[in-house]
Amino acid sequence: MICGLPSKILIAISFNLTLYFMSNLRREPGPFFIFVLFSFFATLTMSSIFRTIAAGSRTLAQALAPAAIFILALIIYTGFTIPTSNMKPWFRWLNYLNPIGYAFESLMINEFHNRDFPCSAFIPSGSSYNNATGLQRTCSASGSVAGSTIVSGDIYINQSFQYYAAHKWR
């Protein structure tokens, strides 16, 4: 594992640097380095999990089947595909054991904390409501406040995913 660490560091830096700026995430040094740190540790964690599966099997074919099922379960129960509030109680435990889930939660908090986003669609909509002001219309996004043209990122992730800024370093 130590021998593979330099290549993992180079790959993580080059991939995350490209991904971060191409997806137009926060243009601040703090959130960028947190993104790289959490992505790198998620890579190391998943590498160790796959090494553990490989160590318990005799052939490559025996290792690929459980690894494929395992990664599928981890991705589905990260909290994005199925939000944690919509997970069935008997599968919710997968999210608690999921290292990708913790990384995803931290990266979402990293991006949305202390940010305001302009509203793109209002309710009610239509030509007669375009000039409506005050409490006559509201933003269609989760976490919006009636009459406001912005949505708080903190309130959005709190209501949509039950993610809170205090959980960033879990």
Q: Considering DSSP H and I runs of 4 or more, what fraction of the residues is helical?
A: 40-55%
Q: Helices and strands, in N-to-C order?
A: HHHHHEEEEH
Strand content: 5-15%
Number of domains: 2
What structural class is derived from the secondary structure elements? Answer: mainly alpha
Write the topology of this structure.
Layout: H1 5-22, H2 29-55, H3 60-76, H4 93-96, H5 99-112, E1 116-118, E2 122-123, E3 138-139, E4 150-152, H6 153-161
Antiparallel strand pairs: 1-4, 2-3
Helix pairs in contact: 1-2, 2-3, 2-5, 5-6
Task: Provide an overview of this structure.
The protein has six helices and four strands; from the N terminus they run αααααββββα. It has 170 residues and is mainly alpha-helical. It folds into two domains: 112 residues; 55 residues, no CATH class. The protein has a two-stranded antiparallel ribbon with strand order 1-4. Helix 2 runs antiparallel to helix 5.
Output the keywords.
170 residues, mainly alpha, 2 domains, two-stranded antiparallel ribbon, two-stranded antiparallel sheet, 6 helices, 52% helix
